[in-house]
Amino acid sequence: MPLDLPRLAAWLRCPVCAADLEPVDRLTLGCANGHRHDVNKRGFISLLGGGSKHLGDTAEMLDARDRVLEGGAYSPIAAAVAAAVTGAHIVDAGAGTGYYLRGALAGSPDATGLAMDLSPQAVARAVRSSERVDGLVADTWRPLPVRSDLVDAVLDVFAPRNLPEFHRVLRPAGLLVVVVPRADHLASLRATGTMLDIPSDKADDVIHAAEPLYALQTREPVAYDLPLTDDLRTSLVGMGPSARHAAADGAPDLDVDTTRVSVDVLTLARR
Ligand SMILES: [Zn+2]
Q1: Of 28, 184, 189, 191, whose CB has the highest number of CB atoms within 10 Å?
Q2: CA-CA distance, 164 to 155, in Å (whole number)?
Q3: Where are the domains of the chain?
Q4: 55-270 maps to which CATH number?
Q5: How close is the Cα of 16 to the center of ligand 1, in Å?
């Protein structure tokens, strides 16, 4: 699909000097201070800068994630996220292949989305998946190359959170929608020892950390039993951070036929 360079640029600011980025030629964005940034031919831009120490998802992890998500295993989570989101400019931080962002856009016909992820392969897939998705390779832990006071909603689904930077890019009263696992999320799979423990990343901790910058609007638990096929078991393990560690051990022994999906969906309004 054709790359909409003005639309891509309209999200972005220069990672060097923070001035707005504008198209300067067919595959270049630039700022008023002369900094130039190449756009990837596949339709997204990398503004990672140097020094990022974090690893993006591998192609194998993305394939596993696609199989789980496109198969509908987490569709109730996507529906809850989509129901929470409003507005014309939606950023998905840690978007992966854009599954939750596409769901949010489906409910907002005039909205466009920015899929932000550390993995260029993930962002390429997200951009390819929808004409209404622009793509940015960036590190959530660093200052975001996104304009201030622009965004109507930031999605953060099982992804790192940079609460001050999300606050800066959100417009006043814009929404931060966060999905965090509850303690029993995928518990039967974790009990088999094939997945690393989910970080003790509880909704209460997020709400507390966000309190100076965001007001909690809603906290919606989403929980259900998910029947497991062999493929789904393997993919659920393969999509997560444990995949890097599990690969060396060969095929995991997963003798469970259902697992509990259990998350909190938080909607926080920018103060
Ligand atoms: Zn600049």
Answers
A1: 189
A2: 14
A3: 55-270
A4: 3.40.50.150
A5: 5
